[in-house]
Amino acid sequence: MLALFSLTLGSEPAAGSEPGDTNSLPPCCRKFLPGGPVTDTSLYLLESRWISDVQTNIRLEVLRGRPQIVAMFFTQCEYACPILVNELRRLESSLPVALKDQVDFLLVSFDTERDDALTLAKFRQTQHLGNTHWTLLTGQPDDVRELAALLGVNYQKDGRGQFSHSNLITVLNREGEVARQFGGLRIPLDDVLKLLETMVPAPR
């Protein structure tokens, strides 16, 4: 399922303007940071391409170099997803100074029919997700299904256009490997913060 590919590819900007703070680039538009060797369990070996809410065409490898807090969701969710996103915002606001600029957040939609780049951009604005540390992605159905399988996320669309889905938050290390996962709608903040402290290099 995973195939090796060059780690030299970056993002491919497309036409469009960034929502929110235009003075900072979201993680999907930055050059990935140097790190250790990528192992065969890294999600950054995936060759799938994704569209971000700022209309860039990327591979997940561009997120390399910082821990990622990952959740799969869809913007028209009526219950669980707003709670999950709020929990991620709560985690972001709880990060100590030493971690605030070292940790990023990734939201990947499994509603491939409705959650295009413009819809995700509107969601970023309405949810007040800053550009600096948040990436919002949509992709092809098979690619979304593959990523969900690797993360252990199950989802199924119902007749109303809603999705029943796993409520799972995944912490990826700097090289895209799953470090730990948390189920449910509440994040154990202390556990996550302790884990992140072990993954971020101490300031010099």
Query: Number of helical runs?
Result: 5
* Major beta-sheet overview: 8 strands, mixed
What is the string of SSEs from the N terminus onward? Answer: EEEEHHEHEHEEEEH
Number of domain modules: 1
Strand fraction equals 15-25%
- Count the E strands: 10
Binned, the helix content reads 25-40%
- At CATH level 3, the topology is Glutaredoxin
CATH class: Alpha Beta
Radius of gyration: 16 Å
Alpha-beta classification = alpha+beta
Task: Give me the CATH superfamily.
Answer: Glutaredoxin
- What is the spatial order of strands in the main beta sheet? 1-3-2-6-5-4-9-10
Which outline best applies? globular
Determine the N-to-C terminus distance: 39 Å
Q: What is the CATH-assigned architecture?
A: 3-Layer(aba) Sandwich
Regions with pLDDT < 50 over 5+ consecutive residues? Answer: 1-23
The overall pLDDT, averaged over residues, is: 85
Q: Outline of this structure?
A:
This protein is of the alpha+beta class and 204 residues long.
Q: Your description of this structure?
A:
The chain has one domain: Glutaredoxin, CATH 3.40.30. It contains five helices and ten strands, in the order E-E-E-E-H-H-E-H-E-H-E-E-E-E-H. The protein has helices at residues 80-94, 97-100, 117-126, 141-151, 189-199; strands at residues 12-13, 50-52, 56-58, 68-73, 104-109, 134-139, 155-157, 163-165, 168-172, 178-183. An eight-stranded mixed sheet has the order 1-3-2-6-5-4-9-10. The protein has a two-stranded antiparallel sheet with strand order 7-8. It is globular. Residues 1-23 have low confidence and may be disordered.
